[in-house]
Amino acid sequence: MKKAAVLATLGVALLAAQAHAQTSVTVSGTVDAYAGSMHLGGATRQNRVESGGLSTPQINFDGVEDLGGGMKAEFALGMFLRTDTGAGGRFDNDPLFGRRAFAGLKTDWGTVRLGRQTSNSFLNMLRTNSLGDSAAFSPVFLHTFRNAIGQGAQFLSPGAPPASRTLTGALGTTDSAWNNALGYVSPTAGGVTVSALYAPGEVAGVGNRKELSVFYANGPLNLALAVDRFGAGAVPPSGPAAAALQSQTSVQVSGAYAFDFARVSAGYFNHKRDYASVVDDRISTVHLGASLPVGPGALLLQTAHSRQSPSVGSTTKRTTTTLAYDYNFSRRTDAYVLYMNDRFASLASGNSLVVGIRHRF
Questions:
Q1: pTM of the predicted model, to two decimals?
Q2: Is residue 187 a part of any domain in this protein?
Q3: Domain CATH for 353
């Protein structure tokens, strides 16, 4: 009863504040779950019900207040959840608002934000990716960003046992959002938007993060470029110990073009990691994809190939290919069937087949 009373009081207070300040607040989200057989390269086949086949489940609160004179205040709070268990976050110990949590001001000169913010390289990847924000099955997502299940595992490490080399461990190069970030987004001019992000380390031994991004959108054409620089200990490593990591530089170039019959996409990631006392390495990823309208839905295809090349030693390779059909019941609800092939080094190839449903609100 006490909890219900508190929630009711908060609801009335929020409504009153909204009416007084004339703030527009919207609530949106995605619920996504799938079931099927998962088999990663060199690993054991598993039959499972999981969360987030085509999109990571989430709830978002976004608000804007018109301050007059062309200035607006804004805020965003976004949280992830797991549809299969009802737990919050993408994984245990994920922040409450792990997707984003910031406040900002928007003027004719651009938007400035403070707080946890989505990285621009991640946004560029989504904009030029035929499988969008599929953390579980988009090959380029799997190869370049931390993901929900097994996060932090070693994706491209020949010394790791297959159980810890899960696709959703990814390269550990970066999470999709940065803590303690100061961000700027320019006004769009001629289809070009420039974005910058800076996050101080705030802890002894942890370096700063810096990012600059350019995104171009004009009719059917999208082009994206992002450069990230991480200082010592500012990025979760997938190889040697975190204490040895001195810096990482990442470059992303990608694009997409919508023809009458299909939207095609391609991109390239390059991550160079420098260590104090161990072998440096470079990780490169190339991805190609397409989305073809078929009936009331779309056929989705993407492949990604990654190479981890240490300055001394042998190169490790991984190739992942996904084919899916996404059937639209309505503007908000769709169902999908998906096949994924995963090949890691010389280990046995893995094949996964799942079906799922997604609803947006």
A1: 0.83
A2: yes
A3: 2.40.160.10
